[in-house]
Protein 1
Amino acid sequence: MDDIQEYQSRHAESKKLYERACKVAVDGAQAPGKVDGPYPIYTAKAQGSHLWDVDGNEYVDYILGLGPMLLGHGHPAVTQAIQSQMSYVLNSTPTGVEVELAERLMGHIPCAEKIRYTASGTEANMLAVRLARSFTGRDILLRVTDDYVGWADSLMPGLHIPAHQPGAGRAWGLGGVPKTSQEQTHWFDFNDTEGFKSLVSSIGGDRIAAVIMEPAYRASMAPQPGFLETIRSVTKDIGAMLIFDEVVTGFRYGMQGGQGYFNVIPDLASFGKAISGGIPLGILAGRKDVMERMSTQVPPEERVYHSGTWPGMPLASVAAMAVLDVLEQPGTFPQLFQMGERLRTEIQDVVNEHEVPMRAFGVGPVLEIAFTDEPVVSPKQNLLKVEPQIIKSIWMAMAMQGVLTVGKGYIPAIRCFVSLAHTDEDIKKAVDSMDKAIKKVFGR
Ligand SMILES: Cc1ncc(COP(=O)(O)O)c(C=O)c1O
């Protein structure tokens, strides 16, 4: 039986669901990043670091819903907070919990002088870009090549088909994005300080509204010394806004996010995913003078408009406060970092034993496995040499042994998110499954 046949035989109920999904949803999916393998594994239930699919298979889950479940699935503090809030109010006039959450967030996020809620990370980034344009009176946006920061018009240019997919290197996702948005967004490579500086001078600093970027590439590749600091000082010099997208790094690298971890403070920062334990919530935090472009004190024609039915949703606010309660405990981040480091080290030991060209890298509880034998310091240098079949086969071999990773989507690497619920046993299972996957895929 080959891999695909084995996958199908173990996932018959998922296959049925996928066939139904294909009749009602484009490509059978609600988000392309959620489709891995020949077809998705549909979850029936999840608890802690484990999930069970509709065929009854059990997995150690390193996907964590693409990031939000940092405490693990079904954490009692989050569940109780949601259940108790449900008996009071779901949506109404403003509630005290949205105020209390903002006060607590401001106590943690270094750049936060004001807080605005949205329903997703993309929306928080859209708002950040609009505020930056209004505040500076400029249009041009700079972003990092190939690092996803949401699906809005101004955020899509600069993404290319990844190295493991057909058509690698061609622009991706520009359908329906107006030409003006395409002309106004420019990109530079992560950890290429000189490339960034020459892009700024070729465009002209006085035309640049903002730089939007994750403080670590894909929340995995740390900035080289001086890279973020240069971007901070150049943006200050030219009067442009620095926006950190902390949708993944936020509350995963520590209570102060990537800005605290790397000690570079942006003007604005967006958050999402991990902060609210699985309930939709985006957050924009930032400088008061910039955020106040939304104020009714600003003349109407100049005012930045942001609104929505969901911002301030009590369920999201209480879930986020329950997450904060847990994360604020001493020992939480040392545990997350220690488990992430253990996973990286032990996977790398297995890779070294087999002498295959792979590198485990990452920061804290985020791990990626790149298909290179060099230290991973630059996406351009180290993440483009990819054997597409190897990624698919490793992902599949690990999945068949009950270990789910983010594998085949838009990232030319295997990616794992570690949660507070992952145990030593879970780490061992991932390492053993990598050992067997390498033996199978490389025949060693
Ligand atoms: C770094 C980063 N920014 C923004 C987003 C968009 O967030 P959302 O999916 O909540 O719109 C994502 C989603 O994966 C992300 O990884």
Protein 2
Amino acid sequence: MPASGIISSQNCRITLLPSRYTVSIVAFTVNSRTVMQKTNQELQDRLAHILNTIESLEGVIEAYDEWADTHDQDQLCLGYGAPFITCDVMREMVPDKSARILDVAAGTGLAGVELKQSGYTNIDALEPSKKLARKAEEKLVYNNIILDTVDTNTLDIDTDLYDAVIACACFLPNHILPSCLSELIRIVKPNGYIIIVTDKEYYQDHVYGRELQKEINQFSDDRKIIQIKREDRPGYYKHLKTATVLVIRVL
Ligand SMILES: C[S@@+](CC[C@H](N)C(=O)[O-])C[C@H]1O[C@@H](n2cnc3c(N)ncnc32)[C@H](O)[C@@H]1O
């Protein structure tokens, strides 16, 4: 059954109405003033535009900058679950709560919040959108926030620094290129992990996903990594999209 109802605290109320798939209209009310009203379709269109239409990385980052103020509420309303899945996989793979973790393309820090709540204490973030990074900073879950892209550049990060890198909803078209996997492998310690949580649809049915798997296979053949998990989990977006989880151990 689709979610519906009201989530309320002292000053804030979110109204969720059901539709065929999931929440269809959301009113976000603070101190009795409606500050946001959007349809589910508008939010999905915004995401589809970022993933499929914008032609440059600068354009993508600008689009996230513009989304900063309502990003978390909008994602909550759409039932965004990728950060929860990422955190679940971290707990399964890396039980050591002092592990040094990098949250790449951290956005506003939703995965960081989950990790912190699960007891992880040593988390950095990397995020190219200044406005999203500022939102992430306000959540007080990261030790360092690196303002940078994962692209053709070499990151200003030491080799073999991290026990784990998480990549939640960023190995996607128009975001991190599949070829950038090599740079993430470089910054992860031997026996450390790269945890990728992505949209099954793009992983399975899009040329992007095929390129990503090709990169993984090549690094596996070269004995640089082992792919230890590739599975689908429900709830990338609740009632709407399935996640594909990829776990890579660096050799
Ligand atoms: C769908 S959001 C996910 C954010 C966050 N991981 C989460 O789950 O809430 C995608 C993020 O990827 C970032 N991004 C896009 N391209 C990137 C790149 N080449 N390098 C690093 N980050 C990138 C965007 O700025 C945005 O924060």
